[in-house]
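Minutes, methods subgroup
Present: GH (chair), OT, SY

1. OT presented the first of two proteins processed in the latest run. Sequence and structure tokens recorded below as shown on screen.
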Amino acid sequence: MRSTTVISRPESSILATNKVLRNTYLLLSMTLLFSAATAGLAMTLNLAPFGMLSTFIGFYGLLFLTTKYSNSALGLLFVFALTGFMGLTLGPILSFYLHAFANGHELVIMALGGTGAIFLGLSAYALTSRKDFSYLGGFLMVGVLVAFLAGIGAIVFAIPALSLAVSAMFILLMSGMILLQTSQIINGGERNYILATISLYVSIYNLFLSLLQILGVFNGRD
């Protein structure tokens, strides 16, 4: 008769993981609501679209500060500063879709619904299966870099087909990032809920924009 050895995680480790997971989803919910509020403010004020340079400087500058102070209370302040800024950049994009397409409201709602369904589905799978998706890390980082450079090329050379391909790539890549990030929290690879929140927020933000662009191309009505 064979004997099997079951390796269980220490109770303290499980409690720590549950705490990080709870804090991450709570903070993520708050930052998404705050980002939606700043996007609405940008739309109300009819802000002009942010330039690529100003968006990069604002995002990476605030991301650096958030990462630097992620172990202190200041980290929370910079999390909301970063997500609020990203909401401001999102506002003019949403205004464009609402005014450029006769069914703009439908496109935005569909993109929101699709983003929510993908996030919830992937998160539920990672939580229930408890699989370790860390092996995806290297592939996803290379993929994001390639997609990012291709996206810049699509903008500089005004190639719509390439821009559409980049959006499709980002949907797949951000879906993989959600699986990776959630599994890192579950399996103890990420103990900082501020960093976990930012990672998931960025994935959700890019996923939403990519879905919105593809829906605009295939379902948009002038």
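2. SY then presented the second protein from the same run.
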Amino acid sequence: MTDRLSDRRTLPPQLHSESLGLAGLLARETRDGVAIVDAEGELIFWNAAAGAITGWSSMAIAEQNVGKFTTTPQALVEIREGKWVEVRQSPLRADGKTYTVVLFTDSTSHVRLRDTRVQLRSLGLVDAETNLPGREIAMLHVEQAIALARRDARSVGVLSLKLDRFRQLRDAPDGQSAADEVVRQFAKRITAFVRTSDVPARLSDDSFLVVLTALTTSNDAAVVAVRLLLVLAEPFDVVGHARTVHCSIGVAEFPRDANESVALLGAALAAADRAQVMGGGRYIVASDLATSR
């Protein structure tokens, strides 16, 4: 096969031998599936990763129409029911002949995740604008986090974030498109900031939630709130214009502020409301709010 795909007119003999050896080693050892098909659609190379991804043995591959990989316009191909691969193609000319190099990876889990998100959005469990979980899923995470925190003697933080003066932004001329873009960027910035173990969610048009799991010391949630206020205060690029959008954050922690999920959420929401009443652009801790009453 190496002689068939080589072009000795362009490479010195030593470099030709070394490069072919390295190319063969790369093709054999890579985790991507690699197939090489000639102009007639005949398969002339199939690496071990290709067999592992597709489940097609060297004996069974002859019965499969691998040539369809080189003609399909889609990046994703369903090779059998429920089994998806992402296909990338590149032409290769050697010895005056044209071949097609086909690289593919297993994308079944990504397709399943995409389909799950579509289903959750259709059920109203995931917000269509931001792809963040909705209230129901967020509350399940709060309950699970509290159960684990009880076992491990840790804390759980809940941050209620409310966009300040969001109604004025939305009700301005052409404000709906600007408001939608602010919400999308706001959600992306929150998601990028929190840990992978934390859960951001959208509760309503101007209200978000962050579930902070496995906190080690009291007031950890307040520290996160301060840092998050700084991150979110940076201007957003909205339709080519820099726009600063402030928010108010209510902070509640289990077990300090509440012992169960609904009460913990209520404490965080009340604290966020109070922060907005005080002018916005700040955070309020639920326990401080209770003390001041």
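Chair's summary of item 2: Residues 56 and 64 are 8 Å apart (CA to CA).
Next meeting: continue with the remaining queue.
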